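Deliverable D4.2, example record:
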Amino acid sequence: MTDRWIVFVSNREQLQNLECEPESVLSMEEALHELAFTEPILGHLQVPPEHKGPKSEAFRVMVGVLKNKLRSNVPTMSNAFQVRIREAVALEMAHPSGKCRQDHDDWHKVRLMPALLRIFTRVNLLAFIGEEQAQKHITQWTAEMTRLQDAAAVARVTLGLLFASAFQVPMIAQFCIHSLCRHTEYQERLRAEAVECKDASFGSSNMDMPYLDSFVKETARLSPGPILSAPRTVMAPYTSPDGYHVPSGNWLAIPQLSLMRDQSIWPRALAFEGFRFVDEKGGMSQSRLTHPSYEFPFWGSIRHAW
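Output generated by the structure prediction step:
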């Protein structure tokens, strides 16, 4: 992205102001299209600029399908997800010769990121197109929740969601595996928690396994992947309430890597503390990976986050 300026905004009040600006002024959707290079991938199927924003079909899908339909159906789909994950991992861990291994000392190398991308793609496809004869999946909900009349239009929105979900989860999973290897002192407690919760049902409160959640959140804090979050394309010359001026075509973004390593926000900010977000006395989460905040902008826009 050498063809534009990226103006970083980190002050809480300034970030709150950005949240109030409409897509026609500061467009997160346009920035994500530019960042993901969706135009050469989707071609004429890409959503045109005039159909973006809070009244667009894409926005209806984000709220109606992802925030409502998918989230409420995850508990009933969790068993199918577990089976798909086990199958996908088994495929990746299979011996290159294709033979069943009885000797556990027979190690072979696996390229981690490509393997994780394939594993999570298989899981995502279950959410997007469902199992055979299943009626609970994102493509079906997209058709129901929108006014789109043709299959190509539904496919356009679904493909956009699929591309958007393809990278960040495998990336953070890779960083977590790396953290486990570097910080072996956490393995015993995490393994014990996993054994304790192996038969736990999927709860809508999302407060189970606080130690694992904290470990993942601390990994994401120090290794979020992209150095910026919630980019917005300036659609027309923009002047902030503070008086700074940004010409159209440039970006405003949150410097998430710097924020999440800021010594004034996080005690011992550069140290990895896997259980930083757990109240050790009560064994409960103080905050969760899925809790967005201006200090933890891993999920981007506070307004758009789940």
